[in-house]
Amino acid sequence: MATAHDSGAGEISTSGPSQAAGIVYETTTIDLNFLRDYGNNTSTTKVISKDVPAGLVLLVRRTRISLAPSIKTMKYSTLCYVLFLILFDAFLVESGAAGGEKDGVYIVYMGAATEHGSSKNEHAQLLSSVLKRRKNAVVYSYEHGISGFAARLSAAEAKSISKNPGVVSVFPDPVYQLHTTRSWDFLKYGTDVKIDLSPNSDSNLSSRGNDVIIGILDTGIWPESKSFSDKDMDPIPSSWNGTCVEAQDFNSSNCNRKIIGARSYNGPDDDDDEIANTPRDMNGHGTHVASTAAGIMVPGASYHGLASGTAKGGSPGSRIAVYRICTPNGCAGSSILAAFSDAIIDGVDILSLSLGSPASRFSDFKEDPIAIGAFHAVENGITVVCSAGNEGPSEKTVSNAAPWILTVAATTIDRRFKSNVVFGKNKVIKGEAINFAKIGKSPVHPLIYAKSAKKAGADEREARNCYPDSMDGKKIKGKIVICDNDEDINSYYKMDEVRNLGAIGAVLVDDKKRGDASEFDEFPMTSISSRDAVEIFAYLNSTKNPVATILPTTVVSQYKPAPTVAYFSSRGPSSISRNILKAKPPDIAAPGSNIIAAWTAYDGEVNDKGKEIPKFKIMSGTSMACPHVSGLAAEIKSRYPSWSPSAIKSAIMTTASQINNMKGPLTAELGAIATAYDYGAGEISTNRASQPGLVYETTAIDYLNFLCYHGYNKSTIKVISKKVPAGFACPKESKADLISNINYPSIAVYKLTGKHSRSITRTLTNVAGGGNTTYSVTIEAPTGLTVTVSPTRLQFTKNGQRLSYHIIFTPTVSSLQKDMFGSITWANKKFNVRAPFVAGGR
């Protein structure tokens, strides 16, 4: 029998709709709150719709839409409608199909800021004209590195301004999300600082970083955390030009020689919603990220006794500059650009952003505040590191795709949180979760499969997946419930449903989330694999009165295999620019699953159980992976102060590992061998990255040519960049295929058909010091593709010397049916410099 999964509401009726329905479901204008749940603030919604009532305030949630409020009254088939609305929302935002009769906040991007000249004059004139029409129209003005402003405009005003020759783009102020695997509502957990069980075995980088400044664009900071003590630190670097702003709950004394600066930026609607403009972190995410990147060593760190050890950041000696850009209303693009502009003049060395747009909302680079801000930061010598997003394992889901950004995927570590299921005659099945269950070690509690508790008239699929309003509470009460997870709906919704029905515990059957333990606090809930579930289902079917229990969490160290690519980590290939093997897929991977780090003392909840608010918490997401790389970049910058952002990026990428702790290849969440689409160049290596031997330097001309190949004309590029040399012109016949030729530490070539060959060039710079040294090439090529390199040996005689080589890709089959992966490695007796490649026929 067909269900709503097959036919939706059913076959259309030609007569029914013309008759009086009696009752109808009417989606009202106030259902614009749906747009709030998908990340749009009030201003953006006013741009999208002309029917926004006066006084409507939308409090935006940080991450992807939360279905918690509505799922309790919806059948599963209704989720299809939700998906349609999500896609329609994305269409409205990207196509500009919004009604134009209401005001909204727009970002006016005018390229690179200059101290003198026409650009500065045009900026001043446009600002003046906007202020003449409306006194409080301007939200932010960007004058350092970036030229432009954010202002409240009508659609007609925005369109008029966009025609100004000094304007690159005008677009509605977008709202970005934090890249954790939990929504704002579930941000009760931690982000990521490395737990070092043997702190005396630090790498040779650990004492460096004293004069390097890491800027953290996030939710702020909790300065009282021990991770941010400035004990024994040197004076603040003389290069620092920033400030420590004061707020009602944040004083200048909260800054020190560790936290040397703090700024905050309210979004367009935050003041109306009475959100305090303060650098203090009332969320926890920013504190966790900052301590992951640069927290000092703190012995005795743990989360309620779990994962105990010494917590430290990737660059304990580096300084932290805080830019609080995210509030409960989201992370406004206008605030992000303001923070970039200030960070450039403040003098930071590294910028770390653990946030981005949803995969469905791809924007052109000139309409993406993170891409814009990062471009100008890199022009000013700042390395920008961003998280890749948490929409894996689906393809084409990575955000922050611009080639000037170092984009980070997430992997698991060799620590797991075990919460086993005991059933029958003390038979044990391995489970994974974080809970502090207290229901005993003996299997005495009744056990039931949710499918067997199906409510009369409910859908069987919904019942076995523990959907709301699908199970009979009388059959659930007092039992441990086994739930499937076919649709990958958030496990917290399942927990709430069975707990509300009186269940005393739950077992989730889920293969995807290995290495990413969900936290259920004191509710006894754990996750098991489908393979192990076979055994427990056999027991259920053979026993009249099945019983079980769920054990509280214990920690397993030195788990194998590790690392693996985290299931949630967004994947490639690029949906914006396939001809560069980078942020779609990511550039690099780093630990991002179940990471422990510093936390805010404000938990956001009433602690009615008397449990102490933890000083460290556990969290997963590419948000957690990003600051690992930011810290590593800071250590390299400290060792080599003159290195460019692209040299630092190359050092991290070309020294990455593709091997796990079992000496086998890195795998994905279900055990399949991972590819560059999953992890970019591989897992970071903290030791090898400090001595890469050779680097691929992506020059300013490379980035300008990239813009040419991406379709920008010379006039627009001259406005965007302050480093356009005299006589620069876009190469003739600029097209996307030529992007393969920019000097990036990875290679991507597509449209390889028949016996047609593609030739590209790469240039390496010697950074290993003087003296003669010769590198030989090793090619790892898949069957069906011939890869030749010329020359096969590179001989360097001095430091800083640049030598080029050519690569020819030739298919040996008539058609490449799938993308193929390989690598080109240059090695001498000391260094191995690896560049991954992908080739495809599409």
UniProtKB/TrEMBL annotation:
Signal peptide: none annotated. GO terms for biological process: proteolysis; response to symbiotic bacterium; response to symbiotic fungus. Residues 741-838 form the Subtilisin-like protease fibronectin type-III domain. Residues 464-534 form the PA domain. Residues 105-179 form the Inhibitor I9 domain. It is found in: Secreted, Extracellular space, Apoplast. GO terms for cellular component: apoplast. The active site is at D218, H285, S623. GO terms for molecular function: serine-type endopeptidase activity. The keyword Glycoprotein does not apply. Keywords: Apoplast, Hydrolase, Protease, Secreted, Serine protease, Signal. It comes from the Eukaryota. Residues 209-661 form the Peptidase S8/S53 domain. Belongs to the peptidase S8 family. PANTHER family: PROPROTEIN CONVERTASE SUBTILISIN/KEXIN (PTHR10795). Required for arbuscular mycorrhiza (AM) development during AM symbiosis with AM fungi (e.g. Glomeromycota intraradices). This is Subtilisin-like protease fibronectin type-III domain-containing protein. It comes from Salix brachista.
